[in-house]
Amino acid sequence: MSALAFAIFFFCYGVNALRNVAQHKPVTLSSYSPRWPASNAVNGILSDHVLTNDEDNPYLRIDLGKNYMIHQIEVFSRQSCCGKQIHDLEVKVGKFLNLTTVYGYYSGFAKDAEQISFWCPYSTVGRHVQIQIFKGVNDVLTPAEVIVWGK
Ligand SMILES: [Ca+2]
């Protein structure tokens, strides 16, 4: 590869490449179930999931470790059953845990193995990402995976 080709490659795919900045980052749930740990949301495996207790407005938070330019957030429902446990989601992004802005809503019930995407405005920068069920009572939050595309 020539120096010019390398420079073009690096510019296009190195500096500017989006990647999943959430993978293997710390995850906090509003409540915990030992069999389905919070880390399952960011382990790259779609056949597992996390599980909260039955509660009102359960949430999942990811600490990305530093601020990233965030482009897109994807939430995957459980693959083989119970996809409808993912419903009525609100997505927040913020530089600080207590200063989050709502960037998207998903209304209704997901299907099994559904991929729900939220696109952030171009200038969205944040370290903390939260998804929360905003409607209903006695819900469990069970995403199979949450992917945050950023750089
Ligand atoms: Ca997973």
Structure description:
- The protein has 151 residues and is mainly beta.
- The protein has a single domain, classed as Sandwich (Jelly Rolls).
- 9% of the residues lie in helices and 42% in strands.
- It is built from 1 helix and 8 strands.
- The chain has one helix at residues 3-15, and strands at 19-20, 27-29, 59-76, 87-96, 99-109, 115-119, 125-133, 145-150.
- Strands 1, 2, 3, 4, 5, 6, 7 and 8 form an 8-stranded antiparallel β-sheet that branches.
- The chain starts with a helix and ends with a strand.
- Calcium ion binds at residues 40-41, 43, 45, 48, 144-145.
> How many structural domains in the coordinates?
1
Measured on Cα atoms, how large is the radius of gyration?
Answer: 16 Å
CATH topology: Jelly Rolls
**Beta-strand content estimate:** 35-45%
Shape type: globular
Indicate the CATH architecture: Sandwich
Q: What small molecules are bound in this structure?
A: calcium ion
* Beta strands, count: 8
Q: What count of helical segments does DSSP give?
A: 1
Low-confidence stretches: none
Specify the helix fraction band.
under 10%
Q: SSE string, helix = H, strand = E?
A: HEEEEEEEE
The biggest beta sheet reads:
8 strands, antiparallel
